[in-house]
Amino acid sequence: MEQNSSKAAFISYPFYIFISLLIGAIAVIAIRDLWNSSSLIYTAIFSLLFLLHIALFWSNTRQDENSRWWFFYYPAQVVLIVAMVNQPFASDINLTLLGSSILCLIGESLGLWGNTRRALYLGIFLFIFMVVMLYFAVGRDRLPLALSSMLVNGGFIVLLMVMFNQQLAERQKAEELAESLESANAKLAASAAKIESLTLQNERQRMARELHDTLAQGVAGLVLQLEAVKAHLASNRNERASAIVEQSLTRARSTLAESRAAIDDLRAASTDVSDSVREKLERFTQATGIPCELEISVNENQLALEITNHALNILNESLTNIARHAQATQVKVVFAIQDKNLQLEVRDNGKGFDVNKNTSGHYGLVGMHERARLTGGMLSIKSNQSGTSVQFIVGRS
After folding, report:
1. Which of 8, 164, 168, 311 has the most neighbouring CB atoms within 10 Å?
2. Which residue in 60, 59, 49 sits closest to 23, CA to CA?
3. Neighbours of 2 (CB within 10 A)
4. CA atoms within 13 A on the CB side of 138
């Protein structure tokens, strides 16, 4: 894959057009030389060899990068060059043809593979081949002059090609980096959109839980207290009914304040967790008449604020469900820290319910499970005809 991309980057039709024109111009001079000094046979042989030489150059535009092709291509080009430069020319045109053909092969290798070891080794081989051919063509005495002339002209071209490859490689790296950055930016944009969507969804769920735990539970408590007032009035217990009305007013004001705080995202838990738990149980007992036994061993600042809020809301929901559905006569609450974990357990002796029944419509139970998940805790609900147990365990920090 890398070699194919290198070939696409370095080798193009203009390069082969340049090769064809350069060697073609030299070949025209060579053909004229042979035509004037030799027979038609040598002219035809040279023309055929030249056409094969150019055809092999152009064949690279259709060949894939594979070892079989290159093992054929370069030996064939070397054989063709040897055959062309050894024609009976009347002048030294064969030296120009030799140098130009070798330089084109070196330039092509640099174009195909860039500034790599493969191109270096091939260039060294072709250079040695050129020196040997010059030695046999001009002899030892003229070799330094002929070689220096070719090195001056060809060395500049090869150096220019190496520098061009280096700049092109840097450009490719910059393009790849730009593509990587663009891809990374696209992924970041997609992630940001997903995070925004999840944040909005989580915020909606949070507000739904908060409103349920304030408005729904508060109104449910008021309904229970009002039913108690109605029952006391029917029995002419006016003083007890009046006391519950006062409690209802206090609860209504508290529910309104908590609802406003939830909407404004300013809701705060009581700094004394024990007082909050006892207050909730007192309200429950006053509203329902069900006695509550409490075991609590939590001191102030032992729990994180988030865990405190979720635990108290789970307690609220459990008591609300008992008041609505359990028909219980006794409730026991355990709110304690044991083994660095907060353990909340709410048990009643009510009629129980089927915990395997679909509870998708009971938002209170769903919210309890969501709160357990958000804190990384574990919520367990067990129920039978003898009562229900809700247990919530979570790390305190």
Report:
1. 311
2. 49
3. 9
4. 19
**Which residues 6+ apart lie within 8 Å of 381 measured at CB?**
355, 365, 388, 389, 390, 391
- Topology, domain 272-397: Heat Shock Protein 90 (3.30.565)
Return the number of other C-beta atoms located less than 10 Å from residue 125's C-beta: 15
Dist CA 348 CA 389 (whole Å): 7
Token pair for 125 = 């081989």
User: In this structure, are residues 101 and 57 in contact, taking their beta carbons and an 8 Å threshold?
Assistant: no
Q: Which residue has the tokens 């006794």?
A: 330
CB neighbour class for 65 (10 Å; exposed up to 12, middle 13-18, buried from 19): middle
Q: What is the pLDDT along the chain (397 residues), one digit of tens a residue?
A: 444 444 444 445 777 788 888 888 988 998 988 888 877 898 999 999 999 999 988 887 765 566 678 888 888 989 999 999 888 887 888 888 888 888 888 877 877 777 788 888 888 888 888 888 888 877 888 788 777 767 766 666 667 666 766 676 677 778 888 888 888 888 877 776 676 666 556 656 666 666 666 666 667 777 777 888 788 788 888 878 788 877 777 777 767 666 665 565 444 444 578 888 998 898 888 878 899 999 998 876 678 888 888 888 899 889 988 988 889 999 999 999 888 889 999 999 999 888 877 555 556 788 888 888 888 899 999 999 999 999 999 987 6
DSSP 3-state assignment of 395?
Answer: strand
Is 304 buried (19+), middle (13-18) or exposed (0-12) by CB count in 10 A?
middle
Of 142, 122, 26, nearest to 71 (Cα)?
A: 122
Domain with CATH 3.30.565.10 in the chain: 272-397
- CA-to-CA distance for 69 and 62, rounded, in angstroms? 11
Pairing label, strands 331-338, 341-348: antiparallel
Residues 147 and 134: beta-carbon distance below 8 Å: yes
In this structure, the strands spanning 387-395 and 378-384 are antiparallel
